[in-house]
Amino acid sequence: MASNKIILDIETQNSFQEVGKHDPTKLRISVVGVYFYEDDKYECFLEKELPKLFKKMEYADLIVGHNTKGFDLPVLNNYYAGDLLQLPQFDIMEEVEKIIGFRVRLDDIAFATLNQKKTGSGLAAIQYFRTGQMDKLRDYCLQDVKLTKEIYDCILKEGLVRYKDWLGNVKEVKINVSQIDSTNLKPRAINLTMGF
Description:
The protein has 7 helices and 7 strands; from the N terminus they run E-H-E-E-H-E-H-E-H-H-H-H-E-E.
């Protein structure tokens, strides 16, 4: 049976600089990029399509992302009657920070672990949205999802990620995969914090 894990990344219509403080409740979704392990499929959801995504998230064994607890899920909670942070999740940024004591950007982990770079920035994604370049917005968001998926797959396979320190040296961060290995994920009751 295929694992029902989800890789997730969001883009927003506005930025923290514009809303005046670091408050996720002030941000609006432009697009959410998702990879579904169960179907081996990448998909994008626009703001108006979020109810369809929430239904899938509630049935997921695990939601995986980079800074999902600090950014993606709090912003998505603006649209959700329950609390998405209660769903089972694995936040790559948080796991790395627990071990080394500081946060590492997705781009830095992707470059050191996969020899790949992001194709742009969140600010560029906001401009794509505002200028109606939705294909570019979707492509940018899904590229981040692909990087996150490949990093997560590396964690499962090798039990580590890599990053470059301030001196340019590549460092390894060993991550305990027992909590996220699909063979160890226990069946759970469907969360359904919001009834659909």
